[in-house]
From TrEMBL:
PANTHER family: SULFATE ADENYLYLTRANSFERASE (PTHR42700:SF1)
GO cellular component: cytoplasm
Protein name, entry field: Adenylyl-sulfate kinase
EC number per UniProt: 2.7.1.25
One GO process term, biological-process aspect: sulfate assimilation via adenylyl sulfate reduction
Keywords in alphabetical order: ATP-binding, Kinase, Nucleotide-binding, Phosphoprotein, Transferase
Pathway membership: Sulfur metabolism; hydrogen sulfide biosynthesis; sulfite from sulfate: step 2/3
NCBIfam families named among the record's database cross-references: apsK
Length: 179
């Protein structure tokens, strides 16, 4: 069975990870690919229920999601993961776990600035953080370690949703060409 691949979209809240993931999944499904989006917020209500936002809990969440991604990829699924994953060590462990099993892992850094993410404030989290209603907001008063060697960087302030999706698709096409 041919191995699938995991495309991990990392970046701040509001950077555009989910938007790109959903648009990409729709395009790939439309041309017959088996695709699964693993949405971080949704998985926090089941797979990672009970976990908080400490460094340890965030990394446990990332490793659990990474494990599920890996299982799906083993069955040839293209797995798209729009999850903040703020710590480089946990992202590296997920990559290495995929690579050990001959599965492809690609890291896409959705590098939209904090200023722009704050301006969008899609979920109202930045406002709640500023009001002191939530603590440990990634990029504000909790760390975000940007990837040092991502496979692709997308700043959605300057790259449209369609262009972003096209660029991730080229990353996947390159995978097929080199497979
Ligand atoms: P995240 O999943 O990273 O928290 P979301 O995808 O939920 O972010 O939210 C990003 C917001 O930014 C959406 O409202 C989306 O419509 C908007 N947006 C504006 N331009 C872009 C773009 N070029 N790419 C992705 N999202 C964009």
């Amino acid at each position: 069975m041919s191995g699938g691949s995991t495309i991990w979209l990392t970046g701040l809240s509001g950077a555009g990870k989910t938007t790109i993931a959903q648009a990409l999944a729709a395009e790939l499904s439309a041309v017959g690919n088996r695709v699964q989006v693993l949405d971080g917020d949704e998985l926090r209500t089941n797979l990672s229920a009970g976990l908080g936002f400490s460094r340890q809990d965030r990394n446990t969440h990332v490793e659990r999601v990474g494990f599920v991604a890996q299982l799906l990829a083993t069955h040839g699924v293209t797995v798209i993961v729009p999850v903040i994953a703020p710590y480089a060590d946990a992202r590296a462990r997920v990559r290495s776990s995929h690579e050990t099993r001959g599965l492809t892992f690609r890291e896409v850094y959705v590098a939209t600035s904090l200023q722009e993410c704050r301006r969008r404030d899609v979920k109202g989290l930045y406002a709640r953080s500023a009001a002191g209603e939530i603590a440990a907001m990634t990029g504000v008063d909790d760390p975000y370690e940007p990837p040092t060697d991502p496979d692709l960087v997308l700043d959605t302030e300057h790259v449209s949703i369609d262009a972003a999706v096209a660029r991730v698709r080229s990353l996947l096409t390159e995978l097929k060409e080199t497979a």
